[in-house]
Amino acid sequence: MAEAHQAVGFRPSLTSDGAEVELSAPVLQEIYLSGLRSWKRHLSRFWNDFLTGVFPASPLSWLFLFSAIQLAWFLQLDPSLGLMEKIKELLPDWGGQHHGLRGVLAAALFASCLWGALIFTLHVALRLLLSYHGWLLEPHGAMSSPTKTWLALVRIFSGRHPMLFSYQRSLPRQPVPSVQDTVRKYLESVRPVLSDEDFDWTAVLAQEFLRLQASLLQWYLRLKSWWASNYVSDWWEEFVYLRSRNPLMVNSNYYMMDFLYVTPTPLQAARAGNAVHALLLYRHRLNRQEIPPTLLMGMRPLCSAQYEKIFNTTRIPGVQKDYIRHLHDSQHVAVFHRGRFFRMGTHSRNSLLSPRALEQQFQRILDDPSPACPHEEHLAALTAAPRGTWAQVRTSLKTQAAEALEAVEGAAFFVSLDAEPAGLTREDPAASLDAYAHALLAGRGHDRWFDKSFTLIVFSNGKLGLSVEHSWADCPISGHMWEFTLATECFQLGYSTDGHCKGHPDPTLPQPQRLQWDLPDQIHSSISLALRGAKILSENVDCHVVPFSLFGKSFIRRCHLSSDSFIQIALQLAHFRDRGQFCLTYESAMTRLFLEGRTETVRSCTREACNFVRAMEDKEKTDPQCLALFRVAVDKHQALLKAAMSGQGVDRHLFALYIVSQFLHLQSPFLTQVHSEQWQLSTSQIPVQQMHLFDVHNYPDYVSSGGGFGPADDHGYGVSYIFMGDGMITFHISSKKSSTKTDSHRLGQHIEDALLDVASLFQAGQHFKRRFRGSGKENSRHRCGFLSRQTGVSKASMTSTNF
């Protein structure tokens, strides 16, 4: 989501003050260290690796095999074809009375060797099967005979009841694409946004790169792909995130919203108690690997590596580079309320506190009358400061207030009990939603600990939200956790009739511990400067939320189109109407089909999309002509999305080539130009991954309304969207107020009009001609008439404030 801003801003050779820093480590040494880090990760989770390493077999299968061999031996059959006799001869002779023991040991050793060989064979076969990506390239809704055969074989070799990390050893490694193909695709992607002169110059640079440097850089990448788990992901994390010196707030974090229309209880402490209990239940399931792995088509597993750092994780600032600190366990949360910090235990005698006991502890914090200490109230603004500044201040803070700092950084996660309400209101629904989004993204600049993996935000009226730090994982991971949390705290844990958590309080629990910060005088000015910078950054962000209820995924599905591609092409139309020109567009796609894969960029502004947009703005073009161009644009977008998912994208390969060139001190004008591009439209879809947790038919309002992120460019937009059930799409739009070129509300209106115009193509193609084209209110009302008949939504609701 927020990664586009980081991808644009990364400069591997610059410090925070702009001074040059040489990446002097030899590239072979860096590749060696990448592989070493991969092996260390495997060793650090030995037991999990043992359980998952034998999958799709199980430890019980060894016992079954050993018993079968013993039974055969008892029946005077030798399934080993003489191998067990040879093993017995190699075992020490303990005397005649231990002759039977030698036979048992020989059988055990033979069973272990045979069991290991079978497991290895299954792993190799499954990895080879999972390397097949032909199913991605097939037309939507169609399945060829090879793909059906492949699915059957995957089902045979996949085993039953996999745990979260069961498939990790069987996932293929992300392939290094052909550098010629990558450069060709890149040139194709920039052609719509460059003038003829600029494109010709870029093509010359590309040919020079292919001729002089590409083969050497590609060789190093192939070497790394053979040695390390993933040829790009660790460098992506380091250079795009951890080496970035920009503030985390707005630039790197993103937010997740609560239910849009429903708040299960107005009691702040009760909502916090249930939510924290649900989150820790998720952590318990995560530790026991009881969360099933995500499967595409119900069969193709995705990498689960990013789940490891959801909890007990903090991004620690460094002068030149941050690092991620992850603890094995933590039995407390850090709580912020009215400028004060608390350490609140979540377990008693190693068992998780009940929701009602957690509510009691939160209520004690809310009722605590003690005031904040001087400068304590604004201390967290330091986590919203430039990373180098925060790193220097943290060194002093660690000396003076080590215990309090450790209580925050060592917490399972951070909880902010806001003193203000948030969420949708009847009085001013549009403004209230925008304020809600802004509060989650930036808050007041000093009431979130942005270093933590995530902050749970509980507003005074019981509304929830999540602020997530981006470096440790991508949005689908935190989204999966958030879906579980909302469904569990609302449907499984529930609330009593008076709004409290179910159960009984525990008066024997100790009071939450108030953290004491001994802040030296030299830190006071740093806090004030950080707060001033955070407020400037926060006040400059324009957030707008658009719940589009005229149609949703079901309508798009009836058109036999990909819902994501439908939205992406509509966004191109909306952005062109907003800015009058095309721009590079960043859409995040996952590469978790591969081991430790993260994301790839889909460059959605294609020549086909531009042709469609021009046709829509050309009054001489007919509806059938526009519809034909729209389908071509959708097909092109689908091809790019599938290529990105299968490891054949453009940007991660060029990024890795650029990093290698920096290590080798090779100057490449082509790669330098590639990584100086600005993404003026950054987009991302928030997937709904666990629809079985929500009953969208009987309770359509109980669905998460997604989340958003800051713009990637000072003169650009950040747009995320989520399909809420079958009949609604929620858009989250952000931009900078300081820019005279952008306006989040204006783009929101263009998005609504563009969706209606695109939908009208299909209606006109089936029943009637489109009478109007454009984005005026008269046309919108006209389109509302026939779309309401299609979707069952009243015309009045469609022409009101989007609700």
UniProtKB/TrEMBL annotation:
It is found in: Cell projection, Axon; Cell projection, Dendrite; Endoplasmic reticulum membrane. One of its GO terms (cellular component) is axon. The keyword Hydrolase applies. GO terms for biological process: carnitine metabolic process; fatty acid beta-oxidation; fatty acid metabolic process; regulation of postsynaptic membrane neurotransmitter receptor levels. SUPFAM superfamilies: CoA-dependent acyltransferases. GO terms for molecular function: acyltransferase activity; palmitoyl-(protein) hydrolase activity. It is a multi-pass membrane protein. The chain crosses the membrane at residues 50-75, 104-126. It holds the Pfam family Carn_acyltransf. It comes from the Eukaryota. Its main location: other. Its EC number is 3.1.2.22. The active site is at residue 470. It catalyses: S-hexadecanoyl-L-cysteinyl-[protein] + H2O = L-cysteinyl-[protein] + hexadecanoate + H(+). Keywords: Acyltransferase, Cell projection, Endoplasmic reticulum, Fatty acid metabolism, Hydrolase, Lipid metabolism, Membrane, Transferase, Transmembrane, Transmembrane helix. Palmitoyl thioesterase specifically expressed in the endoplasmic reticulum of neurons. Modulates the trafficking of the glutamate receptor, AMPAR, to plasma membrane through depalmitoylation of GRIA1. Also regulates AMPR trafficking through the regulation of SACM1L phosphatidylinositol-3-phosphatase activity by interaction in a malonyl-CoA dependent manner. Binds malonyl-CoA and couples malonyl-CoA to ceramide levels, necessary for proper spine maturation and contributing to systemic energy homeostasis and appetite control. Belongs to the carnitine/choline acetyltransferase family. This is Palmitoyl thioesterase CPT1C. The lineage of its organism: Eukaryota, Metazoa, Chordata, Craniata, Vertebrata.
